[in-house]
Amino acid sequence: MKFQIEDVTVYFPYDNIYPEQYSYMVELKRALDAKGHALLEMPTGTGKTIALLSLITSYGLSKPSNPIKLLYCTRTVHEMEKTLAELRVLHQYQLRHLGPAARILALGLSSRKNLCINPAVVSAENRDSVDAGCRKLTASWVRALSIENPNLPTCPFFENYEKAASEAVLPPGVYTLQDLRAFGRDKGWCPYFLARHMVQFANVVVYSYQYLLDPKVAGIISKEMQRESVVVFDEAHNIDNVCIEALSVSVRRQTLEGATRNLSKMAQEINRGRFKATDAGRLRAEYNRLVEGLAIRGDLPISDTWLSNPALPDDILKEAVPGNIRRAEHFLSVLRRLVQYLHGRLETENVEKEGPVAFVASINSQAGIDQKMLRFCYDRLHSLMMTLEITDTDEFLHIQTICDFATLVGTYTRGFSIIIEPFDERMPHIPDPVLQLSCHDASLAIKPVFDRFQSVVITSGTLSPIDLYPRLLNFNPVVSRSFTMSLTRNCICPMVLTRGSDQLPVSTKFDMRSDPGVVRNYGRLLLEMVSVVPDGIVCFFVSYSYMDGIVNTWNETGILKDIMQHKLVFIETQDVVETTLALDNYRRACDCGRGAVFFSVARGKVAEGIDFDRHYGRLVIMFGVPFQYTLSRILLARLEYLRETFQIKEGDFLTFDALRQAAQCVGRVIRSKADYGMMIFADKRYSRHDKRSKLPGWILSHLRDAHLNLSTDMALHIAREFLRKMAQPYDKAGGSGRKTLLSQEDLEKMGDGSMNEMLF
Questions:
Q1: In terms of DSSP bridges, do strands 352-354 and 416-423 run parallel, antiparallel, or are they unpaired?
Q2: 668-686 confidence digits (pLDDT tens)
Q3: d(Cα 212, Cα 216) in Å, to the nearest integer?
């Protein structure tokens, strides 16, 4: 269907549209018109992605004089592929209506591991090894040598891509990662470098958050993006944590030992006879380049570019490298002293915490390395690795981590802490010292994105309370709105269960969680539910250790055996392969009618990215409130910073964080409006208004007062009633008075204003 929103003709590839999709587009258009940022919360399963894509592409088509580029950030490769598949449907629809004028180029960009088609390289087990394998075949000096010695291996795909030169372009269209690989095989070109090259010409780019938020990656990939871009962060409820991880570094003993090995290897390279005699010129040329202060931001061939500086672009000094680290030998001795100093700091018996300023002062007094030298460590290392022509970058990760750490500590004076812990508090008898540079201020990493691009849209199904995000990320959205779900039938049934069938309160509070009564009541609740709920049930626990403990107890008391009479049980572990296998088998058990229960952990992989739609999830039970481990030193330092800088109280932040995780877990069950499911929040703390009110509006609007303080038997009765009601046939378009599916005529009527009362 196609319809007008003010001066924009929106092309929408389906025959009907949900009212909330329409309102979402109206708000989004307001943000684009105002060239400002937006914060939009839209319930899961209401077609958020297609609404975003159709409005932004249609907006670009209606203003051909200044085309806008869309940078769409997702968290996982799976989500990236789903977004591009939606975009393809939309693009075909626009082509049918507009012909060649609607042509766009849209592509996904991911790491070499997901795009490489050279079997010798891509077979390596992890991402770093694939990157290094690629560098060994494509670095400029390797290719120069291979001209003299044809037996040296190079990458045929990269060579063909280079030969094609300006011919190597992608024709317009929508390309998923799979399409890129197929196109590369077909033409014999390298899909990774082709995609990297085409990103600057594409109208829509779909990639991971890191490509914009992590300065090391963003410095290479996103620096050419024009200001007239619209950036969308999808599923962005955890965006503050992503920003913080991008600027945090942790150093362990293994890191320091690896760094020492890296330094010895580099020293050997420098002192080797051939280097002193023939290639002394290379080191001299590098020295001269550093004197002039042309830090290696220059024009490197695309295959040589390597991770950029870990500090944010505006904070990097535009000046010459300090004299005392220009010579390679001197620089290595500075790094040796730094590693030695960090070794000494890790020998501590007690937990230590200090700010970057005190830490830099102590390095200066004990190791004689000043702030400016620290600040240039990363760039200087990068330059040296280029000069020494090092290709196996995966072996040099340790020294890179140390230089990462040094550059960040030398660049930032506030918003960070250095925390040294001699052992993990949960296992105090095992010495495992770790030194962490932890960032507390999420607004640091995202600030360049807000400053550079005219519109940034942050959207997710759980952004409640919505007013906390602008404070955490330190920006002013022009539009900030939370949408509810328009439903023809109440297909979501949230309940708060506060006590077991014996009327004892249930909770995972620290002093109650190991109480046998609580564990027994949780077991009875699940046992009662598996006997009445068909197909799949998903249970979320607050942590792996709690899940292990409770499942063991259920096993000893025979509850688990009783559950298995009704449904099979599958468990998420910390191993990705095992979990994937468990999920596959869980789905098979649901498909064949045997029914299954999946035990999972809040904040785990499953809670973040796996959908349990239709019969794969008819009920979600959230056992407890998933607070973070509140004694963690890093969390305490961050809470202190938030309180002092943004006036956010500790309790408010912890509750907000726990409830967005809980909402994320239970939101997995409903993925479309035809779907239905129940949510049980099993903890007496959910009945308190200050906790409950932080859940998203679309869950709260279905949470009836009668369901706020239930015991197991009452919950069972409600579940039976709900499932009976859901089994009845229903009218998808919405019958009397309330429309939940709008056709083109409805939208035209809305233009006259006669429909508004039907909507709201």
A1: antiparallel
A2: 888 888 889 999 999 999 9
A3: 10
